[in-house]
Design a protein that fits this description.
The complex is a heterodimer of chains A (331) and B (362). Chain A has 331 residues and is mainly alpha-helical. Chain A has 13 helices and 4 strands. A two-stranded antiparallel ribbon of chain A has the order 1-4. In chain A, a hairpin with a 2-residue loop joins strand 2 (160-162) and strand 3. In chain B, strands 1-2 form a two-stranded antiparallel ribbon. In chain B, helix 4 (66-91) crosses helix 12 (290-300) and helix 12 (290-300) crosses helix 13 (305-329). The chains are: A mainly alpha (331), B mainly alpha (362).
Chain lengths: 331, 362
């Protein structure tokens, strides 16, 4: 039970160092004329899809299913989410449709990994390639316009206004979901079964638990969270769907999962770091004085460079479930 | 995402595809392709299109006439090369999906060397091609080094490098290489830096021979040389390779570099080997997603360079035919890419054939 509390050891130190660095950073930013509040708001917005996706994938990988098709789920759910919002004239229904879309793709992925004994890495990549084409086909088939769809502003999910700035309800949900996922994995019977299904599926099977059902369940749940993150992007953040809306976030979320060693709370922390980097990029892009000096295209690279740097520094000997990515075959 | 074990696992699973004898893999690819097309038809029906009409125009557009077949081959050229990028990764036990970024760099290199400098005609083509391949390989190195030194999984690093390349190449194309008065694209390659067009009716150029020669070269390298044997040994049995004194680090680096060369050449083929633009669009429109398409092509071609050529002709045909399908049946051409993804999912699931067979027996 070495992973009972996610924050043990060196990783906790890294986290502390990161928080201190960010605090210093915010101070410098404030001094240089950028607004720290808008930076925080931007960071929290950017954190949301990453956190939802990463937390879902943490649960998923705990049970032994590895889904690298998250990028594709984000893409497809963003379109179906907007379509749902327009259909029901309500942004919240859009989020729900997005989550359902994700759950469906996750369910199918679970079926083909468990019953089809698929090579999960290849199948996940297949979902990504499928999504690249399918999102453009969907945009064209639904709205007859290539590559982009601008929907009515009133369909956006309204944020909560707090004293320190705006906060989306989905962001709040994402943060709570990370905490709940931790409790779920470590304090409930089902959570124990999920972890056991990833560590030694044969033993779980002997104990009378259906490994296939556990894995399909986690895959569906992970897909649903990812789908919610996908629908969040147009409906509570950008206000528009474009064909490259996810911009690598599915893979940045995978980086969060790797960084976190499958701990939902650490995944949230990682999502905060990456989300903050992206919020920073957005803030820099519009700051007078900076935007003339640094070309916009370099600002856009910040999230990816941050991801590479963090993953390179923080990666180490992480223990992953021993049956991770392996199909389980009953004897 | 277990750093190294995962790849080994995915490769050991992939080995199940590679049963001896050429018949079974061909059947598996065929079944997967059929399944992809069937699911694609389902997607058409859902949105109210007629799949029979659409597929008629798709295949007529792809292989209906000699000039269409030529055009299909022009589409196939970059695909067979990005397929090599992925396939040689798999052969070395890696999941290298960085072809996308490397093809951007290759295209940039070809556009820069082909448009910005002047050289004697024959030499210019060779120099532009070589520079494109060099940049493609250079862009592949960091992901390999991160993998070797820090164990960063190549799926994550190659995607990050893809996006960095995307913004970086657009920046260079707009700020330094834009054609005066036409900011939407780079300076066209000089006539001396262009591969000769083979026929008047299509955009097929002599670059296809370079592409096919490269694929055959990779085939000979993998199955005819000691270094190629070592590369495959690391991919299939890392422990045995280690025991035999093969440096898995060198093999990884080599696999990434060869993949980068292939993707760089693919990028060059779209710039100095593809009329009418002979230049890189600032949106990267003429190279974008070719790297990801190559993954599907490699898998359909069973991660074999020669199989990749055949699969590239098939998928290039779909890409070319999809334009006629869009025009005549109203089905948006990007559906073809979705079908490619579905084929990949089907290929990843070896039990599909077993399941289908069981259903038929009942």
């Amino acid at each position: 039970m070495k992973t009972l509390y996610g924050l043990k050891g060196k990783r906790g130190l890294w986290l502390l160092a990161a928080v201190v660095l960010i605090a210093i950073f915010i101070y410098i930013v404030e001094e240089s004329g950028l607004s720290a509040v808008s930076l925080l708001e931007g960071g929290l917005l950017a954190l949301t899809p990453l956190a939802l996706t990463a937390v879902g994938e943490c649960i998923n990988e705990k049970s032994g299913v590895v889904n690298i098709g998250l990028e594709g789920i984000l893409l497809i759910a963003s379109v179906t989410g907007v379509y749902g919002a327009e259909l029901f004239e309500n942004g919240f229904f859009g989020l729900l449709i997005g989550a359902l879309t994700g759950a469906f793709i996750g369910f199918v992925f679970g079926i083909i990994s468990v019953h089809g004994r698929a090579d999960q890495i290849v199948a996940g990549m297949g979902i990504n390639i499928f999504a690249l084409g399918f999102i453009q086909y969907l945009l064209m088939a639904i709205w007859a316009f290539p590559g982009v769809h601008l929907f009515e502003r009133r369909l956006m999910v309204r944020p909560i206004y707090t004293p320190i700035g705006q906060l989306s309800t989905v962001t709040l949900f994402a943060i709570i979901a990370a905490g709940l996922a931790h409790i779920f994995l470590y304090k409930t019977v089902l959570g124990f079964r999920i972890r056991a299904a990833g560590e030694s599926p044969a033993a779980v099977d002997v104990a009378g638990v259906r490994v296939d059902r556990v894995r399909i369940l986690t895959s569906t749940l992970g897909g649903a969270l990812c789908g919610l993150g996908g629908a969040f992007m147009p409906l509570a953040w950008f206000g528009v769907v474009v064909k490259e809306i996810s911009a690598g976030r599915g893979f940045i979320a995978l980086a969060c999962v790797v960084f976190a060693g499958l701990e939902p709370l650490l995944a949230l922390a990682a999502a905060f770091i990456f989300g903050f980097a992206e919020g920073f990029a957005h803030a820099v892009a519009v700051t007078p004085g900076v935007k003339e000096v640094i070309p916009f295209y370099f600002v856009l690279m910040i999230p990816y460079i941050t991801t590479l740097v963090v993953v390179t520094i923080a990666i180490g000997k992480k223990r992953f479930p021993s049956a991770s990515g392996k199909p389980y075959v009953r004897e | 995402m277990k750093a190294e074990d995962d790849c080994e696992k995915s490769v050991s699973l992939m080995k199940r595809f590679e049963v001896p004898g050429p018949i079974r893999p061909i059947i598996q690819s065929g079944v997967a392709v059929l399944l992809g097309l069937l699911l694609g038809a389902l997607l058409m029906i859902i949105f109210g299109y007629d799949p029979i009409i659409a597929y008629y125009w798709l295949f007529k557009g792809a292989f209906g006439s000699v000039s269409d077949i030529m055009e299909t081959l022009a589409f196939a050229t970059p695909l067979m090369l990005t397929a090599v990028t992925f396939a040689i990764g798999v052969k070395a036990g890696l999941f290298n999906i960085g072809a996308e970024g490397q093809i951007y760099l290759g295209a940039l290199g070809a556009a820069a060397a082909g448009g910005a400098i002047t050289l004697p005609a024959g030499l210019h083509v060779a120099a532009a091609t070589a520079f494109a391949m060099f940049l493609g390989a250079l862009w592949a190195v960091p992901a390999a080094l991160l993998k070797i030194w820090r164990g960063v999984h190549e799926v994550i690093s190659s995607i990050m490098f893809n996006w960095i390349a995307f913004h970086f190449v657009i920046y260079l194309a707009i700020y330094y290489l834009a054609e005066p008065g036409r900011a939407e694209r780079t300076v066209p390659a000089l006539p001396g830096a262009r591969y000769p067009v083979l026929t008047g009716g299509s955009s097929l150029t002599a670059v296809i021979f370079v592409g096919i020669a490269f694929c055959i070269g990779i085939y000979i390298y993998l199955w005819g040389t000691k270094a190629g044997y070592e590369l495959r040994l690391v991919g299939t049995n890392p422990d045995a390779a280690n025991y035999a004194g093969v440096s898995s680090r060198r093999v990884m680096l080599l696999s990434f570099v060869i993949g980068g060369l292939a993707a760089g050449l693919a990028g060059a083929s779209q710039i100095i080997g593809r009329p009418p633009a002979w230049s890189l669009y600032a949106t990267l429109g003429n190279v974008i997603t070719l790297g990801f398409d190559g993954i599907g092509v490699a898998l359909i071609g069973r991660n074999h360079p020669i199989g990749g050529i055949l699969a590239a002709i098939f998928y290039g045909g779909l890409q070319h035919g999809s334009r006629l399908m869009e025009y005549n049946a109203g089905v948006y051409s990007e559906l073809v890419r979705a079908i490619n993804g579905l084929i990949v999912v089907a290929l990843a699931t070896p039990e599909i054939i077993t399941i289908i067979r069981r259903r038929f027996k009942r």
